[in-house]
Design a protein that fits this description.
Elements: H1 4-12, H2 16-27, H3 32-48, H4 52-62, H5 69-72
Helix pairs in contact: 1-2, 2-3, 3-4
């Protein structure tokens, strides 16, 4: 399993497909709260990689309780025009 540091390094290097894969894999092996954060991070990576369907699917699975947070996260800006 990829470490959070490796996933963040891929994000910093703008390797969005890689960071999405790493965060998603981490999310499957973590506790519920940590899983939500990892899946949210994977969704951000998919959004930045131009894959809105994957991003929305993971946001649904993450089910984070962050009112207003999704709209203000610049990593998700590409999703804002989508009604989902």
């Amino acid at each position: 399993m990829a470490t959070a540091e490796a996933a963040n390094a891929a994000y910093d290097a703008k390797q969005y497909a890689t960071c999405a894969s790493m965060f998603e894999a981490r999310g499957e092996a973590l506790t519920e709260q940590a899983r939500e954060v990892a899946l949210y991070s994977a969704a951000c990576c998919h959004a930045l990689d131009g894959k809105p369907d994957h991003a929305f699917a993971l946001l649904d699975r993450a089910a984070l309780r962050a009112p207003g947070g999704l709209e203000s996260d610049p990593d998700l800006a590409s999703l804002h025009a989508d009604a989902r």
